[in-house]
From TrEMBL:
Name under which the protein is recorded: Probable nicotinate-nucleotide adenylyltransferase
InterPro entries linked to this entry: Cyt_trans-like, NadD/NMNAT, Rossmann-like_a/b/a_fold
Enzyme Commission number(s) of this protein: 2.7.7.18
Gene3D superfamilies with a match to the protein in the record: HUPs
Catalytic activity reported: nicotinate beta-D-ribonucleotide + ATP + H(+) = deamido-NAD(+) + diphosphate
Pfam families reported in the protein's UniProt record: CTP_transf_like
Organism encoding this protein: Rufibacter hautae
Species classification: Bacteria, Pseudomonadati, Bacteroidota, Cytophagia, Cytophagales
Residue span, Cytidyltransferase-like domain: 6-165
GO annotation, biological process: NAD+ biosynthetic process
Family: Belongs to the NadD family.
Length: 192
């Protein structure tokens, strides 16, 4: 079983995340894509993050009708901040028959040499990269790397930051969020 792992804060999960995850599941050699809800990204401040269980619940709501997508809270039980190599190692031990593939944006690929044990990630795991307009140049050492494949996935220039701003200002986020996620946010008055 080839499992794509799409890491993120999903604060909140939006239609751009869903389109990307579904595209990777349906148009690559992956059997499924798991969205890995990260409690804390080591490169981002955690002060603006909604509680991890709310974010996990919203991901579950968003993908409930898609059998090709899954969600994991594996990092909730790991030391914070979460490091990708530690999560990959844990998943590999827990599911020894699965082949895990890392999914990341071009912007993350540009910063990959700053990640903990990034060489080990590239030794042990395939990486599928989706384009991110305006992202930094990919380091020369990673260009043409045998484990890195660029996938021309469709992208929407939508950010969770923009959505949170709209919600705080009382503006519409219709079509930016999946309907059940929108209803959950409104019912709990999140980000407002």
């Amino acid at each position: 079983m080839r499992v794509g792992l799409l890491f993120g804060s999903f604060n909140p999960i939006h239609i751009g995340h869903l389109i990307l995850a579904n595209y990777m599941a349906a148009n690559t050699t992956l059997d499924t894509v798991w969205l890995v809800v990260s409690p804390q990204n080591p490169f981002k401040p955690s002060s603006s993050l909604l509680h991890e269980f709310d974010r996990l619940h919203m991901v579950r709501l968003a993908i409930a009708d898609n059998a090709d997508l899954g969600v994991t809270d594996i990092e909730f039980r790991m030391p914070k901040p979460s490091y990708t190599i530690d999560t990959l190692t844990y998943l590999r031990e827990k599911y020894p028959t699965y082949q895990f593939v890392l999914i990341m944006g071009e912007d993350n690929l540009a910063t990959l040499p700053k990640w903990k044990n990034y060489e080990q990630i590239l030794d042990l795991y395939e990486v599928l990269v989706y384009p991110r307009p305006g992202s930094a140049k990919v380091p020369e050492a990673l260009q043409g790397h045998a484990k890195i494949t660029v996938v021309p996935a469709p992208l929407l220039d939508i950010s969770a930051t923009f959505i949170r701003k709209c919600l705080k200002e009382g503006k519409s986020t219709r079509y930016l969020l999946q309907e059940e996620v929108q209803e959950y946010i409104q019912a709990k008055k999140l980000y407002m």
